[in-house]
């Protein structure tokens, strides 16, 4: 055994010294002569010897010594190639060529056997060619001589790379894969993950370009990337916002993996060029998607100085709410219950505090949200309108840090605690309100005993176990309690828990196993003057198991596929007396339970440089289960007490009714130029949950109802078409997108319906059709001292409830506007920076007034006065508009400070516009009068102090 040293005749340094005296043409002739000679002497050598032996965790150097002992061959190699490598193998009279292939199978080593000279030369990622590739000497003669080996003639030429010791490199040259003479290709696939070396978090939207070509890829939300590279030497240019730009040298010998451990970079704001998302709006195939970073809400003036990504979302086209202070969001004409809101993979049923005025998310632990309102990814289901995928930050794995704020109504604090450096961390966030003092300080005596408070807390554990395994766990809880001029105390709470295990199965496949549980409930504690005190409760609970995978098949196909299962348990409501003197009788509605499942698969297809297609299918399944009692009604008749046909009792776990079917997801993008594209999508979906409410807007005491024997699953269909264009080196983004949506079995209520604590709620609701359509316009300026966006939406949202029976018909069976139908919606967000520390912000909103039902006359019947109302939602309240202004003051940026500060001074509703929240009617001395209620009818100033350490 001979270990090559730097003074050996086989030394790489010696070879380079020799080659420095000859031209490359001479070297090629020399190499050809050498290989020709080796081919001749190899062709006349004897057969190779056989090897036997058993090796268990044996250093590979000892195995080589044993091979030399059994044969007459001597091995030549560099020590550094095999240091620390052990093998477990068994050979039984195995040919040495096969034995060596097995021995070096999981290493980067190849070998060349010189039979006559009894030498075996180990080669690191190098192949000795006995047939040279086409055109190696610049002529066709070699090709003609080697027509007997077409596979090798089509292979790429050998890689010649000379290390320049004078060049200082931040990273060593990466050698990827192992050369395989039986699988020589022109290009190989490089996969890997981009990771922040300081925090351990994945880096999304990292742009990786291949220098000297137009090849480019962008890392996904988990930091994963995939790129086809030519065989041999390549230089990658790697760029991202907030990450130190760098170049990486890569030699591709075969398919392989390269993780990019990136360092954070400091950049002056006026020199930042955002490349990571530069073409994302144009290049991605899906329609109707938006992404909001939590930092985007930092400079937007919102009520009482609160950061709120959900309020920022309402400034985007196609997303609105029923009114100021209304809970829930309406997306593309859909109801509030048609949105799937996820916090770290778990459903959060009510992500807002205090009737929608504040979000129930700590802004300092929230990383951002991905919003899908058009082409929804195939892994999501169960809702008709949209998905809000909210993500929590990973904690700092390097040092203890924190962030917080103190405002007029709330206080926030988030702490990031490293547990094991560069591997695991904990982030803890807490947030509470102290609004009672505001209510008690008002002149209105009726408010002196009122109270309103809320809090939320979140804990997230993150552990990057190794390069292939990562675990995340999140626990969250929020609670609201309020009593306004009432003898009732209302409370509602969210609780969720999720665990996610990300596993890299191979260079091409990543998987995620997710387990989560969510619970939402509300209660009412009534304490009146009479003997009618009571306590009332409602809750819905769900548990989900999901397993999903992502596989990059090749340059043109990436598969997303998996399975999910969910279990629901609903307490529809119960009431009990509060105190021994209460006259209230205890009563409870039977619990509901159901299972929901899905199988899904999707393919991201890159047809060519211009055409990209996303195809997916999801099969959704739902089954309502006993123990339960269900009524049946006479077919073709309205559901009421007089048409009851039978009452069926179902035992525990017995199937009551199943729903489901296939859901298609199709999205196409065609790229006219690198900065201009057209996209189209088509999808359908099922929804098995419904909210029961007879309020104009969603409220905390709305209940969720599972589909069953008498309430069918909702169905939705949506088509969209959009054009996307970037201008002025991606400084401006412009998009125009139109959509049409059709819905079936949407719920509404009968006039005067009693929905809560009703055992037969199907007699109080109606199911009908809905349609929504619109055009969305968005213009963004992403950089410069003046930045922001302008959005405009023209949309209609209409419903129809038709029947041959008048009690199940609304507006004579014609389409009528929904409660949240607002044809015109304009939002303008602007920020102007005077210096690096001072900036001003403005937020302007204009919306068409929402529909309302007005009384149109009175009549007298049997000596009693009655009011005649118009068709439902025939009229509208006055239009809504509001202007907010803010001044943002950054603290100085000295490095050695205990904490860095940021102060926001804002005025909400600067114009003092008395925007109506609702209009209601009272009778005064026989005259019907219209009154309006408003949430914020005067300017609301606030100052918030933010700090970070």
From TrEMBL:
Keyword Hydrolase among UniProt keywords: no
Region feature Disordered, mapped onto this chain: 142-162
Localization of this protein: Cell outer membrane
Gene3D superfamilies (alphabetical): Carboxypeptidase-like, regulatory domain, TonB-dependent receptor, beta-barrel domain, TonB-dependent receptor, plug domain
Keyword Transport in record: yes
Annotated Polar residues bias: 144-162
Residue ranges annotated for the TonB-dependent receptor-like beta-barrel domain, each copy included: 462-909
Membrane topology term: Multi-pass membrane protein
Coiled-coil ranges from the UniProt annotation: none
Keywords: Cell outer membrane, Membrane, Receptor, TonB box, Transmembrane, Transmembrane beta strand, Transport
Segments forming domain TonB-dependent receptor plug: 306-382
Any one cellular-component term (Gene Ontology): cell outer membrane
Protein name: TonB-dependent receptor-like protein
Organism: Maribacter caenipelagi
């Amino acid at each position: 055994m001979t270990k090559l040293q730097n003074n050996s005749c086989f030394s790489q340094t010696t070879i380079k010294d020799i080659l420095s005296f000859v031209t490359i043409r001479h070297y090629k002739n020399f190499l050809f002569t050498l290989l020709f000679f080796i081919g001749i002497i190899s062709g006349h050598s004897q057969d190779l010897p056989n090897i036997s032996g058993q090796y268990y965790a044996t250093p590979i150097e000892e195995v080589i010594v044993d091979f030399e002992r059994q044969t007459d061959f001597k091995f030549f190699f560099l020590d550094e190639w095999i240091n620390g490598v052990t093998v477990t193998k068994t050979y039984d009279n195995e040919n040495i060529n096969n034995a060596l292939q097995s021995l070096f199978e999981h290493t980067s080593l190849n070998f060349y056997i010189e039979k006559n000279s009894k030498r075996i030369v180990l080669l690191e990622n190098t192949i000795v060619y006995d047939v040279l590739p086409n055109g190696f000497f610049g002529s066709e003669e070699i090709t003609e001589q080697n027509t007997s080996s077409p596979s090798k003639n089509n292979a790429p030429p050998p890689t010649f790379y000379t290390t320049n010791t004078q060049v200082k490199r931040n990273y060593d040259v990466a050698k990827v894969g192992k050369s395989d003479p039986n699988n020589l290709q022109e290009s190989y696939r490089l996969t890997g993950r981009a990771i922040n070396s300081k925090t351990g978090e994945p880096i999304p939207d990292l742009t990786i370009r291949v220098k000297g070509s137009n090849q480019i890829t962008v890392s996904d939300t988990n930091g994963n990337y995939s790129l086809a590279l030519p065989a041999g030497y390549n230089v990658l240019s790697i760029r991202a916002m907030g990450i130190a730009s760098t170049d990486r040298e890569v030699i591709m010998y075969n398919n392989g993996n390269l993780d990019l451990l990136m360092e954070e970079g400091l950049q002056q704001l006026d020199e930042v060029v955002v490349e990571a998302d530069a073409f994302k709006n144009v290049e991605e195939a899906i329609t109707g998607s938006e992404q909001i970073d939590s930092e985007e809400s930092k400079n937007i003036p919102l009520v009482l100085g609160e950061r709120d990504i959900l309020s920022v979302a309402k400034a985007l086209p196609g997303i609105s709410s029923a009114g100021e202070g209304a809970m829930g969001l309406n997306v593309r004409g859909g109801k509030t219950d048609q949105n799937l809101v996820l916090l770290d993979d778990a459903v959060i049923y009510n992500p807002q505090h205090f009737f929608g005025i504040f979000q129930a998310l700590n802004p300092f632990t929230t990383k951002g949200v991905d919003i899908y309102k058009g082409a929804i990814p195939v892994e999501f289901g169960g809702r008709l309108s949209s998905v809000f995928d909210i993500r929590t930050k990973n904690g700092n794995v390097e040092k203890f840090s924190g962030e917080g704020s103190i405002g007029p109504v709330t206080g926030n604090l988030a702490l990031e605690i490293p547990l094991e450096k560069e591997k695991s961390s904990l982030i803890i966030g807490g947030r509470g309100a102290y609004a009672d003092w505001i209510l008690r300080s008002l002149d209105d005596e009726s408010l002196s005993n009122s109270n309103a408070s809320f809090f939320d807390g979140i804990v997230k554990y993150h552990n990057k176990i190794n390069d292939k395994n990562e675990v995340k766990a999140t626990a969250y809880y929020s609670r609201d309690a309020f009593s306004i001029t009432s003898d009732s105390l209302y409370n509602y709470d969210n609780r969720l828990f999720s665990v996610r295990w990300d596993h890299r199965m191979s260079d091409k496949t990543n998987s995620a196993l997710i387990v989560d549980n969510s619970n939402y409930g509300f209660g009412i504690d009534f304490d009146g003057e009479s003997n009618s005190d009571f306590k009332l409760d409602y809750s819905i609970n769900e548990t989900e198991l999901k397993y999903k995978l992502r596989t990059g098949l090749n340059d043109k196909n990436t598969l997303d596929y998996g399975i999910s299962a969910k279990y629901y348990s609903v307490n529809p409501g119960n009431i009990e007396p509060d105190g021994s003197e209460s006259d209230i009788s205890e009563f409870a509605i039977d619990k509901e339970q159901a299972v929901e499942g899905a199988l899904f698969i999707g393919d991201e297809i890159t047809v060519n440089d211009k055409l990209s297609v996303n195809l997916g299918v999801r099969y959704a399944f739902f089954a309502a289960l006993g123990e339960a009692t269900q009524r049946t009604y006479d077919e073709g008749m309205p559901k009421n007490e007089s048409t009851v046909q039978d009452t069926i009792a179902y035992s525990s776990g017995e199937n009551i009714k199943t729903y489901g079917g296939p859901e298609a997801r199709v999205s196409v993008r065609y790229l006219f130029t690198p900065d201009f594209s057209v996209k189209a999508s088509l999808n359908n979906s099922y929804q098995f949950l419904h909210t029961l409410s007879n309020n104009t807007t969603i409220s905390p005491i709305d209940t969720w109802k599972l589909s069953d024997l008498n309430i069918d699953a909702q169905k939705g269909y949506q088509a969209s078409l959009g054009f996307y264009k970037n201008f002025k080196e991606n400084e401006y983004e412009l998009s125009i997108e139109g959509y049409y949506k059709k819905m079936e079995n949407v719920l509404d209520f009968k006039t005067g319906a009693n929905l809560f604590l009703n055992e037969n709620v199907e007699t109080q609701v109606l199911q009908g059709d809905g349609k929504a359509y619109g055009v969305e316009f968005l213009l963004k300026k992403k950089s410069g001292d003046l930045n922001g966006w302008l959005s405009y939406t023209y949309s209609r949202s209409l419903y129809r409830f038709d029947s041959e029976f008048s009690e199940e018909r609304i507006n004579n069976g014609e389409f009528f506007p929904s409660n949240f139908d607002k044809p015109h919606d304009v939002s303008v967000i602007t920020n102007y920076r005077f210096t690096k520390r001072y900036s001003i912000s403005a937020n302007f909103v204009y919306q068409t007034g929402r529909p309302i039902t007005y009384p149109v006359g009175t009549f007298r019947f049997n000596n009693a006065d009655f009011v005649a109302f118009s068709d439902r939602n025939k009229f509208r309240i006055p239009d809504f508009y509001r202007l907010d202004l803010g001044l943002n003051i950054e603290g100085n940026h000295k490095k050695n400070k205990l904490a860095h500060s940021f102060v926001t001074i804002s005025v909400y509703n600067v114009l003092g516009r008395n925007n109506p929240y609702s209009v209601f009617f009272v009778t005064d001395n026989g005259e019907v009068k219209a009154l309006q209620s408003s949430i914020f009818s005067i300017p609301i100033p606030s100052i918030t102090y933010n700090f970070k350490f």
